[in-house]
Hints:
A: 5-stranded parallel β-sheet; B: 2 domains
Amino acid sequence: MTKEKNKNGQIQFLTRPADWPVTKDNNFRIAAWVGDRLLYWGKRIDFWQLAYDRFKLIIKNSINGLLILGSIFGFVMLAWTLYLMQKAGIEAWYFYRIRTVPTLIFWFSLYADFYLYYRLKIELEENKHIDKKKYQPINPTFQAIDWPESQKISQKYKIDVSLYFSSQAAQAVTKAWQLAGRYKHAEVRPVHLLIALLNYDQTNSVFSRLGISFNNLKTRLSKVLAGLPPKGKEVSTISIDLERILIESYFLSWSLRKDKVEITELIESLGNKFDGNEAYEILYDLEVEEDEIFNVVTWLRIRKQLAERWKRFRGRAALKPKNNMNRAMTAIATPVLNAFGQDLTLLARAGYLLPCIGREKEIEQIFQIMQGGTRRSAILIGYPGVGRQTIIEGIAQMMVEENVPLFLQDKRMVSLSISKLVSGVQPAMAQERLLAVLNEIRRSGNIILIISDIHNMIGISAGQKGSIDLGSTLGQILQDGSVLCIASSDPDNYRRYIEGKSVLENVFEPISIKEVSGNEAIQILEAKAGGIEYQNKVYFSYDAIAEIVTLSDRYLHDRYLPEKAIEIMQEVASYVKDSKGKDSIVAENDVAMVVSAKTNIPLTDLTQEESKTLLNLEERIHQRVIGQNEAVDMVASSLRRARAEMREASRPIVNLLFLGPTGVGKTELAKTVAEVYFKAEKNMIRLDMSEYQDKPSVNRLIGAPPGYGDDSGGQLTEAVRKNPFSLVLFDEIEKAHPDVLNLLLQIMDDGRLTDSSGRTVDFTNTIIIATSNAGTAFIQEGIRAGKSVDEIKKVLMDEHLQQYFRPEFLNRFDGIVVFKPLSIQDVEAIAKLMIKKVADSLDEKGVGLDITPAAINQLAKLGYDPSFGARPLRRVIQDRIRDSLANYLIAGKIKRRDVVFIDADLKIKIKKAKLF
Amino acid sequence: MKGKNNIATSSIKLVFIEVIGDLLHWPFWWYTRGVKNAGNLFLDTVKGEYERLGVGIWAKNLFVPMFGQYDWQGRLISFFARLIQLIIRSIVLFFWLIVASVIFLLWLILPFYVFYQIVDHFHFLFH
């Protein structure tokens, strides 16, 4: 996550040299220079200061109390007088002429009221507010100064930051001082402030979002506290490090244009990294980074902003008319439009629309287009889920507030539904309806038309082929600019139906809506979190939200941010509610669970069982693959790297080339990996490269270009898109056309491939295995001549493989594995595995199999062929064992509970089961 | 201990000086910043009512026909309808203007009037 600090502008800290004289005005030890102001902490905190403050507070409160009492007394006197007047039959309005002691008291009490009002008002006014930072197009150049220079600065430009602390924040600092006193520490340090801050709701909210466990925090705090120097008789003083944090929190508030330094700024400054800030060290120890604190505090700020926005919105919304009339009463009734559309401003006014966050730039662009220019209608082009509808709804909400350019004020925004328009009628009728709607809009003059997925209008035409369609009808009306319209479409359909093909292109100015990313996406999720948390009664930790964005971005490729992340967020919330119960916190791992379940990619923290499997991968593979230790080791270690996230995330998990004669287990190993790592053998995409020998076969892999053939997509790209977590096996790679190999180059290097329709398919969660028979004869000869595998491999690479593959292609492989021809012992082991399969199928029928080692040895001998590996073995077992067994079974000679006995002669004997 | 007592007495002194100063500052504030505040309250009230009643919108559209009726009959009826609306709305606005002005004037006059009442009371009761 990149840090996007709010702190634009610079700050330079200066500390007082040891020999610098202390005067009454300049008694601070650290100050901060921000270019035009010198910041310092001027508040002395000691026992007498606190006593003074408390005394002042008591006096203030007692004066106010007396004033209130006096005022009440005055009104009682007034009431008493009025009562007497009524009794005496005097009219109440005659009151001002009465001259008695009670009325005198009443008149005096009015002064008490005035004075009280003045006191309360002045308290609000005198509360100092931080000077608002000016908006400057360019930050002025910053000039550093040193301590002597800083002392020459006039008092006007020195700011005592302690005056700008909110009462809560000031109280927290006092509490920190009291804590230091209680623990008998010489200095008040950042850690004291951290403890003091734990008393505030905001801190608890930040820390629980960060997933900090309070027990862990406690142990660390007590360790740090124990290590601080104790004090003697003197009073604890505020340390330089703490002063620095306090000054930084002021600087932060100023950068954020806030009125006061509040608790949230103190928390954020405590998380700043510098020497001497042990609070940062403690938090870092608890796996909290500087960035995370920043993002969580921003989250709190966003929530506050949303609440303020809502308050303002409610106030303004009361002025917006509740029906389709505008305030100027110039509009007309629009019954047809109301039947086929939905009034978005009314929905917004009633509070049904969700807030739109972080899209100011796009909205500004729409306003600019609609305000002037020849084309005054805009079309938002973006993929589903990037937020086109949200932007439109955001504008609707701004219209309710009337916080829009003049041409949008006092207007309605109505979304026209194309499906309602065409439902149940002939195209001619739909066209008539559209014209009626447009006519109403034109005459009413207060309507902004919204048409989502406008491409659906194209091609609905009334007459013969080529006659005018709905889209063109709309286009013609829009051309004169009397109707303003915002439409939306996605890039593919826009290109296909509108660009260069429809009159609509000439009336709409395209605005492309990009997918959000990174911090923007996180902030959108943070804004959405409140509602989802409320619905599900769970709480999101910050890590969970960041993880949702990262994982959905990385693993859900067909859809777009922020929608896909919001959906995951909803799923995770309901999953956590069901599994952990109400009021639990959503953690990172819960998110990984949900995304894992969706994509079949293991993302959660390793379970013990899984780590055991991973550590014993070789053993598991060898249960199916005999021999070939080098290949198995290479595969196993690459799988471990992948699961522990120690691999490059931008390439496939591993690219391997298996070389060797047929029948030695190349394909079998691939299948085994699919079963062991990807959970099932079916998670293997197998492409026989002998089918891709000509140039056009590239199209079969990535799909035919648009307009040529069907749009079913490529065989490779579609398979990987649907199942991104799988093994891709390219069998007999040497037979493929060179252009096909070029595609593979890209997959192996970048981990992605773009298909014919422009979609990028992600290969970073696949294992690529290519097998080849190239150089088989040489391998066999070499083995026969007793050469080592390494020697053979070297010569193969240098001489034989060059005929088939280009060097850069070979270089892309993480490993090139030479499979050795099988020895007779290997074949025997394989025969055992195969016979076990026979035994399994017999077992299903309730029949046992007893086979002697001699029989297996005999099978291996019969099935062994140095040039075909173990392949003939399958045939031998089929011919000699399975066939005869089948005959026996069909003839009914084998019954349940019988045992088939096979010896070296491979003849079948049946041991009949005992009859009861 | 003497030093500490000094601080205590001096802080008590300080607090009382502040209290007296505050009391003296009150009349000054009442007729400077206080008047400004009261003026703002007056303006906000009137502006808010003006906005709520839409007087400006009605006045601006006096000659624009209502409900898109652009024929001359429509225009004629609209004009009178709008005129009546405008008059009623202006009356309501005027009422609010009076209310707001009374509050503002009370701010200015009331302290003096209370003073007059008190003096008069003394005159009447103790003479």
